[in-house]
Write a structure and sequence with these properties.
127 residues; two-stranded antiparallel ribbon; 9 strands; 0% helix
């Protein structure tokens, strides 16, 4: 038999409860396209199913945000690469969290959100 490690609940049995931060479903998939000119594009989808923020499997969020259900969410990422062989350079563009989706990802220190949309661009030079 397992018991909760949350102060004030250490005599509550949690046998059979899902582990904190262990979603039943995780899925990552991507689709890419490469043109003969060298342009390489890829979109990636990352789905994380619902999960609990505590071993009691609390569903409603607590006022301090440290316990409760974390709803499932999906984010999308985009990557573009374009090589220019004459310059021995590849130009790249990446966007993470393409649609700027806001979701809860952590409750250990209160409600922590996903990272906002991040855009990166640059080049790689081979010498």
């Amino acid at each position: 038999m397992r018991f909760s490690n949350i102060a004030g609940f250490t005599t509550v049995s949690i046998t059979g409860n899902r582990l904190p931060y262990a979603p039943r479903h995780l899925l990552t998939s991507s689709v890419g396209y490469v043109r003969a000119t060298g342009l390489d594009a890829m979109i990636e989808g990352v789905y994380t199913g619902s999960q609990f923020g505590d071993d009691l499997n609390t569903v409603p969020g607590t006022p301090d945000g440290q316990r409760g259900l974390i709803p499932g969410h999906a984010i999308f990422n985009l990557t573009l690469n374009y090589p220019v062989e004459a310059m021995r350079t590849t130009f790249f563009f990446t966007t993470k969290n393409l649609f700027d989706r806001l979701a809860i990802v952590d409750r250990a220190r209160g409600l922590l959100p996903t990272a906002p949309r991040v855009v990166q661009a640059g080049l790689r030079w081979d010498f």
